[in-house]
What we know:
By secondary structure, the chain is α+β, with helices and mostly antiparallel strands. It is built from 9 helices and 23 strands. Strand 22 and strand 23 (441-444) form a beta hairpin. Molybdenum atom (MO) is lined by residues 130, 176-178, 278-279.
Amino acid sequence: MDNHITGRVRKAPENFIRAADVGKVFAEAKAGRRDFMRNAFATAAGAAASGAALAQAGEGDPNILELPAHSKGLGQPVAAEGYGKPSKYEANVQRRQSPGLTQTRQASVSFAPLQSLFGIVTPSGLHFERHHQGWWDIDPSKHRLMVNGMVKAAKVFTMDEIMRLPSVSRFHFIECGANTGMEWGNVAVPTVQYTHGMLSCSEFTGVPLITLLEMAGADLKKGRFVLAEGADGSSMTRTIPMELIESGEVIVAYGQNGEMLRPEQGYPLRLVVPGVQGVSWVKYLRRIEVGDAPYATKDEAVHYVDLMPDGQHRQYSSIQECKSVVTTPSGGQMLLDKGFYNITGLAWSGRGKVKRVDVSVDGGRNWRTARLEGPVMSKCLTRFNIDWVWNGEPCIIQSRAMDETGYVQPSYQQLRAVRGTRSIYHNNSIQSWAVQAGGEVVNVQLS
Ligand SMILES: Nc1nc2c(c(=O)[nH]1)N[C@H]1C(S)=C(S)[C@@H](COP(=O)(O)O)O[C@H]1N2
Ligand SMILES: [Mo]
């Protein structure tokens, strides 16, 4: 196999499009002109491809023949103080705002660079962000969590009180219900960062919410719902059914990837509701109210509801159904040569573990089963890999995940047959990436 590993994949698509061009590409894509997008993209890719970054090791390569300075001199002293940073050569790996979406500074979203990440954990500094009213860095010594409603005695917890309780640490994905939302329309968002980047995965540490409810003497017979409320100006409020909480899965979390939550992620306290859309993961969590019915707050009535073909809105469709996406090769990347490639991507399900991921390189005619990298955890990202030898001809790459309930990720045809075309949220359809003869990878939809 070794001698045909000639192909290399550029992993940071932003190398191929300057920020200015991304805006243009989005504008045209929004106007529904997929072809233009493809062309504009190919041009941008072609221009970058001639750059120095594509250098390949050859005869007389000084990079192998000459001793570099870093093998002869003194290195940097220990970074004994301060917080470590990634290599300067990785400066391109960043969260980015989509030029195709309305950008207001406080009610906005930044996308995680899925194309540049390995394994399943999202580095905290690259976690996507979705703020309805901006983020805060709240003084933990002043932060309080109140538990009230159908309880014996309302209780107010300080951070110190919460952090001395028995804790759990678990890996889970969080996906905004609006992830992949632009793909409902005739918009070909250029890269996987923008199609699927409202998705992240972390190890969260905290106290099961049920522990706090029991401490307050919650009436679990009548109180079958809770309302979770955030301390930011958005007064984010969400109903959570008690079944989820009783299972012990819902966590009042302060830890993320081994350290305290980042301010953007709700420092010092956020709700972790595994498998459920991001909006229920209330950040800056300040209040949990126990009640006997869903709260139907303003936020729940207008956001994250699905406009169905019969004109009615579907509400509380909050579980993120099984979904997957190939992250390499993906839109904006370029295959530099024919030969061997590792096709890799992510799969997840809000209903449990991912059971299987199949990959097609011919637009869905034939499928092969990918390797799942362990451990495969419930309501967590799962990394898949599969070997592929590109013959240099145009092709279409797709992945299709199945979860432990037997549910299979739908095609656009299957999804639209049930949901129509007017949705924004909850798009878990199969994503197609077309590899063109020149090696450029672009976003396409098969109808
Ligand atoms: N208090 C509060 N909680 C919030 C939000 C918010 O704006 N305020 N946004 C919600 C939405 S819509 C999502 S998708 C997730 C995003 O979490 P993140 O910013 O950590 O990625 O947080 C949710 N919790
Ligand atoms: Mo969201």
